[in-house]
Amino acid sequence: MDYSEKVMDHFANPRNCRKMEDANGVGTVGNPTCGDLMTIYIKVNDDDVIEDISFQTFGCGAAIATSSMITEIAVGKTVEEALKISRNDVAEELDGLPPVKMHCSNLAADGLQAAIENYRENNQ
Ligand code: FES
Ligand code: FES
Question: Which residue numbers delimit the NIF system FeS cluster assembly NifU N-terminal domain (predicted)?
Answer without folding.
Answer: 3-123
